[in-house]
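Course assignment 3, question 2. Fill in each field.
Student: A.L.
Task: Predict the tertiary structure for the chain below.
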Amino acid sequence: MPLPQHRNASLCILLLFATWASVCAQQSQLVEVKPTPQASTSTNAADVPQVPGLAAPDRGWNGGITLSGIHDSVTGWSTLADPAISYSFNDIFSVDATIPIYMFRLAESRSINPRPNAELVSQRGELGDLILAAHAQFVPALFQYQLTGALTAPTGDETYGLSTGRVTFDISNLFQRTYGRYTPSLEIGAGNSTTLVNRIVNKNYTSLGPLAHFQLGSAVNLPFRSTFETYLYEQLPIGDQKIYSPSRNGKATVIQGHNVTEDNGFTSIFSFAVDSHTTLSGYYNNSRRRDADTFAISITYVLRGATAPKEQEEESFDDLFR
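Answer field:
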C-alpha cells in the first residue's frame, strides 16, 4: 500500500513541472524588457545561475535543472536530478522551489539482518524533501549581503532516511566582497535540519534538531569562463539531535544524541560555463568529523541565462535600497 507521503510527493513534483512548463510556454509571448543593472558582485565568472539555489537573472520567472553523478565513500554511486523554478520580484527579492529526484542510488538495506553482500540495495525514482526558499540581497558600501530563509516539506521517503517526516527550516546570512578576481565570503546560519545546510553537497542522511552552521571561503574567477571555490565549514548541534536512516521493521532508524549531527570539513567546487544557459561543474567534499568523502560531476541548464551587467545605466527604484 503506497505511503501517504508518496502521494503528496507525486502531487508536488507534478505541480513543480506543470509550473515550469507554463513558464516555458509564456516565454515566447513575453516582450523583451531592458534589464535593470545589477551590482557586479557575483562569485561566478560567467554569471550563470546554478541549481540548487536557482536565481533568476532578470525579473520574472526562471527554471532549470541540474543532473549529477555522485560518489559517496559510504554508499557508492548515485544519480540525482534537481529541477527548480524561481521568481525574481526585483534586484533584491526572489523566491525559488526545488525538489531532488534520486534517479538511482544505493541505500542501506531495510532488512533486520542483511547478508554481508546485500547490505546495500538499489533504489530508483525516489524523491527528497521539497525545498522552498526566499532571498533578499543588499549591496551596502563595504560588502554584499544576502539573507536566505528556507523550509522543507516532507515529500521524501522517511523509511529510507530521505526525510524526517516534518517541516524543517533554516536561516542563513551570507557576506561577501569582490577584490578583482577574488571574492572572500562568510556565511552564518541556524536551523533545525542538515538538509538545508551546504545544499550543494548531497548527504546520505537527514536530521532533526537545532543547530548552528558557519562557512568561510573564497572564490576566484579563472580564464575561459571558469570559477574555483573552496570553503571550510563547521556544523554545531544545539541540544538534542536525531539522525534518520533506513528503516527496520517498517520504521525509520533514528539515532539520538547531543552531538550526532556535528560535522566539519571543506568543500571545493570547480565550474565552467559552456554558455549563458549551461554550466559544467564538479565538487569534492571531505567531512573530517564523519571521515567521509563525496565527489560529484554535474551539468546545469537554465531557461533564462544571465545578462551581463551594464555600466552607466540610469538609476532604478531598487537603487534606493542599496
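Instructor remarks: The chain is about 5% helix and 50% strand. The chain has a mean pLDDT of 76.
Grade: pending
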